[in-house]
Amino acid sequence: MTTAPAQAGWRFRQPSVIPGFGLTLGFSLAYLTLIILIPLSGLIWRSAALGWIDFWAIATDRRTLNALEISFGTAFIAAVVNVVFGTLVAWVLVRYRLPGRRIVDAMVDLPFALPTAVAGIALTTLYAPNGWIGKLLMPLGIKVAYTPLGIVIALVFIGLPFVVRTVQPIMEEIDKEVEEAAATLGASRFQIITRVL
User: Fold this and answer.
1) What is the pLDDT of residues 98-138, one digit of tens each?
2) How many CB atoms lie within 10 A of CB 156?
3) Which of 53, 65, 168, 196 sits at a 20 to 30 Å CA gap from 108?
4) CA angle at residue 105 from 171 to 178, to 5 degrees?
5) What is the rounded average pLDDT of the residues 57-67?
6) What distance in Å separates the CA atoms of residue 8 and residue 134, rounded to the nearest whole number?
């Protein structure tokens, strides 16, 4: 008889739909706090200690402006290159059945598989003055490693797959008849790509 009230008072917890949810949520929140929130709050705390005059002096310092110019300039150039060539690569992969198409399709995903640090080290090694590609470019007076050109190449390498994999499914949904209709109406290939696709 004593076991019935004890069992009535004891409530069994329903098992979670996602096993280990509490543990993974705790780990994720701890990681977020240690890696992102604490450094970000330190940055805000340090910036708040500055007055407006000091903040403006740092924001308009020549080194800060050069860093922003290189960052935004190289990102803009890489974005333009990625949009143009990523669209062309996606179009070729969707519309043409050429030999080696599967290899090209797999090579597009290579930057996804490589960690960014490994990609950076590999690109620096290739484009360094004694690297495979750098050796060929040095006699022409072109230095790539540790220059804005090298940053653009790295950003293109990392960003091109994002453009291709975003545009490719959309191009697969567009019927080939739409392109053929535009061609029969007198549109050039450039007009078909820019206006139809």
Assistant:
1) 888 889 888 999 888 888 889 889 998 999 999 899 899 99
2) 20
3) 196
4) 20
5) 93
6) 77
State how far the Cα of 149 lies from the Cα of 77, in Å rounded to an integer: 10
Radius of gyration of the chain (CA): 27
Of 89, 128, 83, whose CA–CA distance to 110 is shortest?
89
The whole-angstrom separation of Cα 77 and Cα 153 is 10
Give the CA angle between residues 78, 156, 158 to the nearest 5°. 130
pLDDT-based confidence at residue 4 (cuts at 50, 70, 90): low
Separation of alpha carbons 123 and 85, rounded Å? 19
Residue 152 CB coordination number (10 Å) = 19
Measure the CA–CA gap between 187 and 47, rounded to whole angstroms: 56
The reported pLDDT for the residue numbered 97 is 85
Residue with tokens 């330190």, as numbered in its chain = 42
Query: Tokens 């739409």 identify what position?
Result: 178
Question: Do the beta carbons of residue 188 and residue 197 sit within 8 Å?
Answer: no
Cβ contacts of residue 183 below 8 Å, gap of 6+?
Answer: 192
Q: What are phi and psi of 130, to 5 degrees?
A: -105, 10
Joined together, the tokens standing for residue 58 give 């740092």
Average pLDDT of the chain is 86
